[in-house]
Design goal:
By secondary structure, the chain is α/β, with parallel strands linked by helices. Helices cover 29% and strands 21% of the residues. The protein binds zinc ion. Zinc ion binds next to loops. The site of zinc ion has 4 residues, from loops.
Protein backbone atom coordinates (compact mmCIF):
# COMPACT_ATOMS: atom_id res chain seq x y z
CA UNK A 1 0.00 0.00 0.00
CA UNK A 2 1.57 3.27 -1.10
CA UNK A 3 1.93 6.01 1.48
CA UNK A 4 2.62 9.54 0.32
CA UNK A 5 3.75 12.48 2.40
CA UNK A 6 3.70 16.16 1.61
CA UNK A 7 5.75 18.14 4.11
CA UNK A 8 4.34 21.66 4.24
CA UNK A 9 6.44 22.80 7.18
CA UNK A 10 9.09 21.74 9.74
CA UNK A 11 10.83 19.44 7.22
CA UNK A 12 14.24 21.07 7.54
CA UNK A 13 13.51 23.72 10.17
CA UNK A 14 11.90 24.36 13.54
CA UNK A 15 8.44 25.89 13.11
CA UNK A 16 5.15 25.54 11.23
CA UNK A 17 4.79 21.79 11.62
CA UNK A 18 2.39 20.54 8.95
CA UNK A 19 2.56 17.16 7.22
CA UNK A 20 -0.11 15.73 4.95
CA UNK A 21 0.04 11.95 4.69
CA UNK A 22 -2.01 9.91 2.26
CA UNK A 23 -2.61 6.41 3.66
CA UNK A 24 -5.01 3.88 2.24
CA UNK A 25 -6.34 6.55 -0.09
CA UNK A 26 -7.12 8.93 2.83
CA UNK A 27 -5.42 12.32 3.14
CA UNK A 28 -4.74 13.40 6.75
CA UNK A 29 -3.16 16.71 7.77
CA UNK A 30 -1.06 16.37 10.92
CA UNK A 31 -0.61 19.72 12.69
CA UNK A 32 -1.25 23.13 11.22
CA UNK A 33 1.49 25.33 12.68
CA UNK A 34 2.92 28.78 12.09
CA UNK A 35 6.51 29.97 11.85
CA UNK A 36 7.16 32.66 14.45
CA UNK A 37 10.23 34.03 12.68
CA UNK A 38 8.37 35.36 9.63
CA UNK A 39 5.79 38.12 9.31
CA UNK A 40 5.00 37.55 5.66
CA UNK A 41 3.60 34.69 3.59
CA UNK A 42 6.24 32.24 4.90
CA UNK A 43 4.52 32.54 8.28
CA UNK A 44 2.03 29.79 7.29
CA UNK A 45 2.45 26.49 5.40
CA UNK A 46 2.00 26.94 1.65
CA UNK A 47 -1.55 25.59 1.50
CA UNK A 48 -2.19 26.90 -2.02
CA UNK A 49 0.75 24.90 -3.40
CA UNK A 50 -0.62 21.78 -1.74
CA UNK A 51 -4.05 22.28 -3.26
CA UNK A 52 -2.53 22.74 -6.70
CA UNK A 53 -0.45 19.55 -6.25
CA UNK A 54 -3.56 17.54 -5.33
CA UNK A 55 -5.64 19.00 -8.13
CA UNK A 56 -8.58 19.30 -5.76
CA UNK A 57 -11.21 22.07 -5.97
CA UNK A 58 -11.01 22.94 -2.25
CA UNK A 59 -9.39 21.82 1.02
CA UNK A 60 -12.52 20.21 2.44
CA UNK A 61 -12.80 17.75 -0.43
CA UNK A 62 -9.02 17.24 -0.53
CA UNK A 63 -8.59 16.18 3.13
CA UNK A 64 -10.25 13.48 5.24
CA UNK A 65 -9.38 15.32 8.46
CA UNK A 66 -6.91 17.56 10.32
CA UNK A 67 -5.34 16.34 13.58
CA UNK A 68 -3.44 18.70 15.89
CA UNK A 69 -0.96 17.27 18.42
CA UNK A 70 -0.73 20.13 20.98
CA UNK A 71 -1.36 23.79 21.70
CA UNK A 72 2.06 25.22 20.78
CA UNK A 73 1.80 27.74 17.95
CA UNK A 74 4.27 25.92 15.74
CA UNK A 75 1.70 23.11 15.70
CA UNK A 76 -1.62 24.98 15.74
CA UNK A 77 -0.91 28.64 14.85
CA UNK A 78 -2.16 28.41 11.25
CA UNK A 79 -5.40 26.56 12.05
CA UNK A 80 -7.76 29.61 12.26
CA UNK A 81 -6.23 30.84 9.01
CA UNK A 82 -6.77 27.45 7.39
CA UNK A 83 -10.42 27.16 8.45
CA UNK A 84 -11.63 30.78 8.36
CA UNK A 85 -9.59 32.21 5.49
CA UNK A 86 -8.71 29.18 3.33
CA UNK A 87 -12.19 27.76 3.96
CA UNK A 88 -11.49 24.23 5.22
CA UNK A 89 -14.59 22.97 7.03
CA UNK A 90 -14.00 19.23 7.36
CA UNK A 91 -13.34 17.46 10.67
CA UNK A 92 -10.57 18.70 13.03
CA UNK A 93 -9.40 16.62 15.99
CA UNK A 94 -7.36 17.41 19.08
CA UNK A 95 -7.45 16.35 22.75
CA UNK A 96 -9.76 18.02 25.30
CA UNK A 97 -6.98 20.07 26.98
CA UNK A 98 -5.65 21.23 23.62
CA UNK A 99 -9.12 22.39 22.61
CA UNK A 100 -9.53 24.21 25.96
CA UNK A 101 -6.10 25.85 26.03
CA UNK A 102 -5.30 26.58 22.38
CA UNK A 103 -7.51 29.71 22.21
CA UNK A 104 -5.34 31.33 24.94
CA UNK A 105 -2.18 30.73 22.95
CA UNK A 106 -3.73 31.89 19.67
CA UNK A 107 -5.27 35.03 21.12
CA UNK A 108 -2.16 35.95 23.09
CA UNK A 109 -0.05 35.72 19.96
CA UNK A 110 -2.63 37.50 17.80
CA UNK A 111 -2.70 40.45 20.18
CA UNK A 112 1.08 40.76 20.23
CA UNK A 113 1.42 40.66 16.47
CA UNK A 114 -1.69 42.68 15.63
CA UNK A 115 0.14 45.93 15.12
CA UNK A 116 3.33 44.56 13.61
CA UNK A 117 3.72 46.05 10.20
CA UNK A 118 3.80 43.62 7.29
CA UNK A 119 1.86 40.95 9.18
CA UNK A 120 -0.14 39.41 6.36
CA UNK A 121 -3.45 37.63 6.44
CA UNK A 122 -3.86 37.76 10.19
CA UNK A 123 -7.01 36.24 11.64
CA UNK A 124 -9.32 37.93 14.16
CA UNK A 125 -10.42 36.90 17.65
CA UNK A 126 -13.82 35.88 16.17
CA UNK A 127 -12.00 33.68 13.65
CA UNK A 128 -10.27 31.88 16.54
CA UNK A 129 -13.61 31.27 18.27
CA UNK A 130 -15.33 30.11 15.07
CA UNK A 131 -12.42 27.79 14.27
CA UNK A 132 -12.30 26.22 17.75
CA UNK A 133 -16.06 25.55 17.67
CA UNK A 134 -15.47 23.17 14.76
CA UNK A 135 -12.98 21.06 16.72
CA UNK A 136 -13.91 17.53 17.83
CA UNK A 137 -12.24 16.71 21.16
CA UNK A 138 -10.40 13.41 21.66
CA UNK A 139 -9.73 11.37 24.75
CA UNK A 140 -6.54 9.38 25.15
CA UNK A 141 -6.57 5.93 23.56
CA UNK A 142 -10.06 6.55 22.21
CA UNK A 143 -10.39 5.01 18.74
CA UNK A 144 -12.24 7.44 16.51
CA UNK A 145 -13.79 6.39 13.25
CA UNK A 146 -13.28 9.46 11.03
CA UNK A 147 -15.11 7.75 8.17
CA UNK A 148 -15.79 4.14 7.29
CA UNK A 149 -12.17 3.47 6.29
CA UNK A 150 -10.09 5.79 8.49
CA UNK A 151 -9.47 5.51 12.25
CA UNK A 152 -7.30 7.68 14.49
CA UNK A 153 -6.20 7.31 18.13
CA UNK A 154 -4.36 9.69 20.48
CA UNK A 155 -1.58 8.65 22.89
CA UNK A 156 -0.08 10.58 25.82
CA UNK A 157 3.03 12.56 24.78
CA UNK A 158 4.06 14.50 27.94
CA UNK A 159 5.61 17.79 26.69
CA UNK A 160 2.65 20.11 27.51
CA UNK A 161 -0.80 19.51 28.98
CA UNK A 162 -2.90 17.61 26.45
CA UNK A 163 -0.06 16.85 24.01
CA UNK A 164 -0.68 13.69 21.98
CA UNK A 165 0.95 11.38 19.47
CA UNK A 166 -1.44 10.29 16.74
CA UNK A 167 -1.99 6.83 15.30
CA UNK A 168 -3.86 6.66 11.99
CA UNK A 169 -4.98 3.60 10.03
CA UNK A 170 -6.75 3.34 6.69
CA UNK A 171 -7.17 0.14 4.72
CA UNK A 172 -4.11 -1.99 5.52
CA UNK A 173 -1.76 0.99 6.07
CA UNK A 174 -0.97 2.37 9.54
CA UNK A 175 1.23 5.20 10.78
CA UNK A 176 2.13 7.34 13.81
CA UNK A 177 2.88 11.06 13.82
CA UNK A 178 4.32 12.34 17.10
CA UNK A 179 4.71 16.13 17.41
CA UNK A 180 6.84 16.99 20.47
CA UNK A 181 7.05 14.34 23.18
CA UNK A 182 9.00 13.78 26.39
CA UNK A 183 10.70 10.65 27.61
CA UNK A 184 11.47 12.09 31.05
CA UNK A 185 8.75 13.33 33.41
CA UNK A 186 8.70 16.94 34.56
CA UNK A 187 7.05 18.60 37.54
CA UNK A 188 3.54 18.29 36.21
CA UNK A 189 3.54 15.83 33.33
CA UNK A 190 4.25 12.15 32.85
CA UNK A 191 6.23 10.55 30.03
CA UNK A 192 5.06 9.62 26.55
CA UNK A 193 3.36 6.23 26.30
CA UNK A 194 2.24 4.24 23.31
CA UNK A 195 1.03 0.70 22.59
CA UNK A 196 3.08 -1.79 20.65
CA UNK A 197 1.87 -1.10 17.12
CA UNK A 198 2.56 -2.47 13.69
CA UNK A 199 3.34 0.54 11.53
CA UNK A 200 4.24 1.29 7.95
CA UNK A 201 5.43 4.81 8.73
CA UNK A 202 6.60 6.77 11.77
CA UNK A 203 7.04 10.54 11.57
CA UNK A 204 8.69 11.86 14.71
CA UNK A 205 9.72 15.26 15.99
CA UNK A 206 13.49 15.47 16.40
CA UNK A 207 14.27 19.00 17.66
CA UNK A 208 16.90 18.58 20.43
CA UNK A 209 16.91 14.82 19.84
CA UNK A 210 20.71 14.72 19.75
CA UNK A 211 21.31 17.41 22.39
CA UNK A 212 23.04 16.29 25.54
CA UNK A 213 21.97 18.44 28.46
CA UNK A 214 22.90 18.86 32.09
CA UNK A 215 20.61 16.92 34.37
CA UNK A 216 17.23 18.46 35.02
CA UNK A 217 17.98 18.70 38.71
CA UNK A 218 21.20 20.65 38.12
CA UNK A 219 19.37 23.05 35.79
CA UNK A 220 16.62 23.66 38.32
CA UNK A 221 19.20 24.37 41.01
CA UNK A 222 21.08 26.75 38.75
CA UNK A 223 17.88 28.61 37.84
CA UNK A 224 16.75 28.95 41.47
CA UNK A 225 20.23 30.08 42.56
CA UNK A 226 20.29 32.83 39.93
CA UNK A 227 16.77 34.03 40.81
CA UNK A 228 17.44 33.95 44.56
CA UNK A 229 20.73 35.83 44.20
CA UNK A 230 19.05 38.55 42.16
CA UNK A 231 16.12 39.15 44.52
CA UNK A 232 18.37 39.05 47.63
CA UNK A 233 20.35 41.89 46.05
CA UNK A 234 17.13 43.89 45.66
CA UNK A 235 16.84 43.14 41.92
CA UNK A 236 13.89 42.29 39.71
CA UNK A 237 13.73 39.06 37.70
CA UNK A 238 11.96 39.18 34.36
CA UNK A 239 10.87 35.80 32.94
CA UNK A 240 9.33 36.17 29.47
CA UNK A 241 7.49 32.94 28.54
CA UNK A 242 4.58 31.68 26.53
CA UNK A 243 1.37 31.89 28.54
CA UNK A 244 1.14 28.13 28.90
CA UNK A 245 3.41 25.19 29.49
CA UNK A 246 6.75 26.47 30.67
CA UNK A 247 5.08 29.22 32.74
CA UNK A 248 3.18 26.69 34.87
CA UNK A 249 6.21 24.43 35.24
CA UNK A 250 8.44 27.30 36.40
CA UNK A 251 5.73 28.62 38.70
CA UNK A 252 5.52 25.27 40.45
CA UNK A 253 9.28 25.23 40.84
CA UNK A 254 9.45 28.78 42.25
CA UNK A 255 6.36 28.41 44.45
CA UNK A 256 7.90 25.30 46.06
CA UNK A 257 11.23 27.00 46.57
CA UNK A 258 9.64 30.16 48.03
CA UNK A 259 7.79 27.94 50.52
CA UNK A 260 10.94 26.05 51.52
CA UNK A 261 13.09 29.16 51.85
CA UNK A 262 10.32 31.22 53.42
CA UNK A 263 10.76 34.04 50.90
CA UNK A 264 8.39 37.00 50.93
CA UNK A 265 9.36 38.60 47.61
CA UNK A 266 6.28 38.73 45.32
CA UNK A 267 6.03 36.53 42.21
CA UNK A 268 3.77 38.13 39.60
CA UNK A 269 1.95 37.03 36.46
CA UNK A 270 1.49 39.93 34.07
CA UNK A 271 -1.21 38.46 31.88
CA UNK A 272 -4.70 37.94 33.27
CA UNK A 273 -5.18 35.20 30.75
CA UNK A 274 -2.49 33.10 32.37
CA UNK A 275 -4.38 33.19 35.65
CA UNK A 276 -7.41 32.01 33.69
CA UNK A 277 -5.26 29.33 32.06
CA UNK A 278 -4.10 28.19 35.50
CA UNK A 279 -7.76 27.59 36.27
CA UNK A 280 -7.95 25.22 33.31
CA UNK A 281 -4.83 23.45 34.53
CA UNK A 282 -6.58 22.85 37.83
CA UNK A 283 -9.60 21.39 36.03
CA UNK A 284 -7.52 19.21 33.72
CA UNK A 285 -5.59 17.55 36.53
CA UNK A 286 -6.36 14.10 35.06
CA UNK A 287 -3.94 14.83 32.22
CA UNK A 288 -0.95 15.59 34.50
CA UNK A 289 1.54 13.18 36.06
CA UNK A 290 0.55 10.36 38.42
CA UNK A 291 2.30 12.14 41.30
CA UNK A 292 0.13 15.22 40.89
CA UNK A 293 -3.03 13.20 40.45
CA UNK A 294 -2.26 11.36 43.71
CA UNK A 295 -1.49 14.48 45.74
CA UNK A 296 -4.07 16.93 44.46
CA UNK A 297 -6.75 15.70 46.90
CA UNK A 298 -4.59 17.24 49.64
CA UNK A 299 -3.61 20.36 47.72
CA UNK A 300 -3.97 21.35 44.07
CA UNK A 301 -0.41 22.17 42.95
CA UNK A 302 -1.74 24.83 40.56
CA UNK A 303 -3.07 26.79 43.57
CA UNK A 304 0.13 28.79 43.80
CA UNK A 305 0.64 30.25 47.28
CA UNK A 306 3.15 32.91 46.38
CA UNK A 307 2.01 33.95 42.93
CA UNK A 308 -0.13 37.06 42.59
CA UNK A 309 -1.71 39.07 39.82
CA UNK A 310 0.27 41.96 38.38
CA UNK A 311 -1.05 45.47 37.82
CA UNK A 312 0.62 47.53 35.11
CA UNK A 313 1.52 50.27 37.61
CA UNK A 314 3.63 47.78 39.66
CA UNK A 315 6.33 48.08 37.01
CA UNK A 316 7.53 51.24 38.78
CA UNK A 317 7.41 49.75 42.30
CA UNK A 318 10.68 49.78 44.21
CA UNK A 319 12.14 46.57 45.65
CA UNK A 320 12.66 43.05 44.36
CA UNK A 321 10.12 40.85 42.56
CA UNK A 322 9.82 38.07 40.00
CA UNK A 323 7.62 38.74 36.97
CA UNK A 324 6.31 36.33 34.34
CA UNK A 325 5.31 38.08 31.11
CA UNK A 326 4.38 37.19 27.53
CA UNK A 327 5.60 36.86 24.83
CA UNK A 328 8.57 34.56 25.42
CA UNK A 329 11.07 36.00 22.98
CA UNK A 330 10.47 39.68 23.93
CA UNK A 331 9.09 40.38 20.46
CA UNK A 332 6.68 43.00 21.81
CA UNK A 333 3.83 43.21 24.31
CA UNK A 334 4.34 43.55 28.03
CA UNK A 335 7.64 41.59 27.95
CA UNK A 336 9.15 44.41 25.93
CA UNK A 337 7.63 47.11 28.14
CA UNK A 338 9.10 45.54 31.30
CA UNK A 339 12.42 44.90 29.57
CA UNK A 340 12.72 48.58 28.55
CA UNK A 341 12.13 49.62 32.15
CA UNK A 342 14.36 47.09 33.92
CA UNK A 343 17.23 46.38 31.50
CA UNK A 344 19.20 49.53 32.45
CA UNK A 345 19.82 48.39 36.06
CA UNK A 346 22.67 45.96 36.77
CA UNK A 347 20.74 44.64 39.78
CA UNK A 348 18.08 43.03 37.54
CA UNK A 349 18.06 39.67 35.76
CA UNK A 350 16.39 38.69 32.48
CA UNK A 351 16.01 34.98 31.74
CA UNK A 352 15.41 33.80 28.20
CA UNK A 353 14.00 30.60 26.77
CA UNK A 354 16.36 28.35 24.84
CA UNK A 355 15.22 29.43 21.42
CA UNK A 356 14.50 32.96 20.15
CA UNK A 357 13.80 33.63 16.49
CA UNK A 358 15.77 36.25 14.56
CA UNK A 359 14.34 39.75 14.71
CA UNK A 360 13.28 39.57 18.38
CA UNK A 361 14.99 41.33 21.31
CA UNK A 362 15.53 37.88 22.82
CA UNK A 363 17.54 36.86 19.77
CA UNK A 364 19.69 40.02 20.00
CA UNK A 365 20.42 39.29 23.66
CA UNK A 366 21.40 35.71 22.89
CA UNK A 367 23.76 36.61 20.07
CA UNK A 368 26.45 38.13 22.31
CA UNK A 369 25.63 40.40 25.22
CA UNK A 370 24.94 43.83 23.75
CA UNK A 371 25.27 46.93 25.94
CA UNK A 372 22.66 48.75 23.94
CA UNK A 373 19.69 47.65 21.84
CA UNK A 374 18.26 49.95 19.19
CA UNK A 375 14.57 49.21 18.81
CA UNK A 376 14.16 51.85 16.12
CA UNK A 377 15.97 55.04 15.29
CA UNK A 378 14.49 56.89 18.28
CA UNK A 379 14.31 54.15 20.92
CA UNK A 380 17.46 52.79 22.51
CA UNK A 381 17.69 50.55 25.55
CA UNK A 382 20.84 50.45 27.69
CA UNK A 383 21.37 46.86 28.75
CA UNK A 384 23.18 46.70 32.08
CA UNK A 385 21.13 43.90 33.66
CA UNK A 386 22.30 40.29 33.81
CA UNK A 387 21.05 38.07 31.03
CA UNK A 388 20.65 34.33 31.53
CA UNK A 389 19.63 31.98 28.79
CA UNK A 390 19.39 28.21 28.52
CA UNK A 391 18.62 28.28 32.26
CA UNK A 392 15.01 27.35 31.77
CA UNK A 393 15.44 25.17 28.72
CA UNK A 394 15.16 21.99 30.76
CA UNK A 395 11.38 22.18 30.79
CA UNK A 396 9.11 20.53 28.27
CA UNK A 397 11.50 20.15 25.36
CA UNK A 398 11.61 16.86 23.56
CA UNK A 399 15.10 15.94 24.62
CA UNK A 400 15.66 12.35 25.57
CA UNK A 401 19.36 12.32 26.45
CA UNK A 402 20.53 13.79 29.71
CA UNK A 403 23.99 14.02 31.24
CA UNK A 404 24.26 12.00 34.43
ZN1 LIG B 1 5.70 21.91 21.44
Amino acid sequence: MAIECLVLGAGQEVGKSCVVATIGGKRVMFDCGMHMGYHDRRHYPDFARALAAWGAPDFTSALSCVVVTHFHLDHIGALPYFTEICGYHGPIYMTYPTKALAPFMLEDYRKVTMDQRGQEEQYSYEDILRCMKKVIALDLKQTVQVDKDLVIRAYYAGHVLGAAMIYAKAGDAAMVYTGDYNMTPDRHLGVAQIDRLKLDLLITESTYAKTIRDSKHAREREFLKAVHKCVSGGGKVLIPTFALGRAQELCMLLDDYWERMNLMVPIYFSAGLTIQANMYYKMLIGWTSQKIKDSHAVRNPFDFKHVCHFERSFINNPGPCVLFTTPGMISGGFSLEAFKKWAPSEKNLITLPGYCVAGTVGHKLMSGKPTRIDLDKDTHIDVRCQVAFQLILYVTENCTIFKK
